[in-house]
Amino acid sequence: MTRAAPGVFTLDQSGAGQGAIVNEDGTVNNPTNPAAAGSVVSIYATGEGQTSPPGQDGEVVSALDVRRSNLPVKVSIGGYDAEVLYAGSAAAQVAGLLQVNVRLPASLLPNEVLPVILNILDSNSQGGVTMAVK
Backbone phi, then psi, for 102, in 5-degree steps? Predict the structure, then answer.
């Protein structure tokens, strides 16, 4: 039985290319609007498995009642581990939308489009998802 099946959303909804990632200043990450190494970004995904407290299909999660992932969450950017600051529901969104806030490694090279991999327990998100770093 698979306990998690992570998938990172992409801007063009193809499942590959630019990830649905928001920069620290609230703007959408893309090659013309990259994130700085060492900054915090929010990655939007699904498939985190059971949450605490348990979610209900179709329920809109309030900011006062967010759900946290029960399983360990890791993120790799360009092959480097990013510090996971938060992994759980996105406030004012439907249950099942996973928001993962990470601090980008300071060692990332500037002016790069880098692969993003979300790992939950023992499952990786799809390959081919990227983000831009300045």
Answer: -130, 150
Answer yes or no: are the C-beta atoms of 75 and 84 closer than 8 Å.
Answer: yes
Angle (CA) 72-53-11 rounded to 5° is 60
User: By CB neighbour count within 10 A (0-12 exposed, 13-18 middle, 19+ buried), where does 65 fall?
Assistant: exposed
Average pLDDT per 10 consecutive residues for the chain, totaling 134 residues: 88 95 98 96 92 80 84 96 95 90 93 95 95 96
* 0.90 surpassed by pTM: yes
Distance from CA of residue 121 to its chain's centroid?
A: 15
- Is residue 4 within 8 A of residue 11, CB to CB? The reply is no
Candidates 3.30.40, 1.10.132, 3.40.50, 2.60.40; correct CATH number of 7-133?
Answer: 2.60.40
Report which residue type is found at 33: N
The token duo for 82 is 């990013």
Look at residue 64 in the predicted model and tell me its pLDDT. Answer: 78
Q: Which residue from 134, 119, 113 is spatially nearest to 8, judged by alpha carbons?
A: 119
pLDDT for position 109: 84
